[in-house]
TrEMBL record:
<protein>
    <recommendedName>
        <fullName>DUF3558 domain-containing protein</fullName>
    </recommendedName>
</protein>
<feature type="transmembrane region" description="Helical">
    <location>
        <begin position="9"/>
        <end position="30"/>
    </location>
</feature>
<keyword id="KW-0812">Transmembrane</keyword>
<keyword id="KW-1133">Transmembrane helix</keyword>
<keyword id="KW-0472">Membrane</keyword>
Amino acid sequence: MDRERRRTVFNRVVCGTAVFAIGLSGWTLWDLWDRRHTVDEACGGLVPAGEVLALSGSGGEITPARNVSDGIRPDDAPLPQNCVLRSEEVAGKRRLGEGGFFFSAQVATEPTGWTSEPVDDAFEDALDPGNPYIDVPRVYQPIGGDVPGHVTDTGVFVRLPCPGVEHGGEEITAVRASAELDAATRPEFSADGQLTQDDRDRLADIAVATANNLADELECPDRLPEPPNGIPALNTETVAPDEAEGTCAWYGRARLDEKPANASGWLPDRVLEARTGDHVWEERCLLSVTGEARGAVYRRYADDPAYRRFAENSSMDDKTWWTSAESFFGDAAEHVSTDPVGDDRAAVAGRGGYDPEGNVLWATSVCGGKPAVHTLTVSRPYVHGAARHLEPVFRAYVEDVAERRGCTDTVLPPEDAYTEED
């Protein structure tokens, strides 16, 4: 083959390759545009599409889950509104009964008027890793970095004050936004049952950007700062009270798990906590009783007539001995439900009490001029024996939160709230 002929063949190959590359590039660009357009359309342009498409499980075609959500339309009232997306990658690996959901976002305003803030469910074993409803104990981490919000095992929730603004003819005080990776409930898209570090940080960026974009739409005066990198995962292992440094540090300082303070033996000897945060509207500390301590208490009190109700409802095999101390601040405090199923029963500002149906002690205070509700939920059958011993526990918790958050006008439950009736 002479030189001229070789050159002609070479040029044709180069041109053909270039044409193919241009065609492939065009298809790739179209696919990327189509995927971003789907996110923008479903989520009203409030959610940063590029960040969403960088999350785990985002591969393949993205489609809105119209049967679950009509999407976000920021000009339409009322809020909240949400968008739910499916991905081809998640749907391709779904199991029977799963919907292939990939990502969801929600925007809302305060006062909410549309939902309640539920306390921990006393009927669930929050520390049981085999519980199909609780993948990890639900003790949420604050985002940090002066961002009001928290991280769960699947998403990020933020809040932005928005005073002096109206939406739908009603005055609002704040906006909320959340971003959740629904695919994180699947082991192939998560790390040890939680979000990966990259997804956790990216969801924080998405939630903050969504809140700020909604603030632009509503002409709110403020904006959230950028969230920090390296947001910690939720703690999943309990520690001894004297090792606690976050939301359960108060229990260690009070030394209530030690004798003589715990002469009865009923008080928790392990805690599960998160970091403390000045900007969260909800915080939680989970306390539990280990197997050795449970056995000792059961043997000691099973035949005691004063603990008849406990003996009738308990056994040596019970594992659900825990109590959850929670606090709700601001607008969230006005909608605290002590009912694990509905919102029929709610804590009332300026009062303290006990809900025997939900096994919830509750107190109230005023923090920074806004209402706060503090609760102590006690699991069954543990409540039947422990209730009469929990007054110093709840008092120590409420006093610690009040000091840490600058709360006043604290009202605790009456003394008879801690008495289990036989």
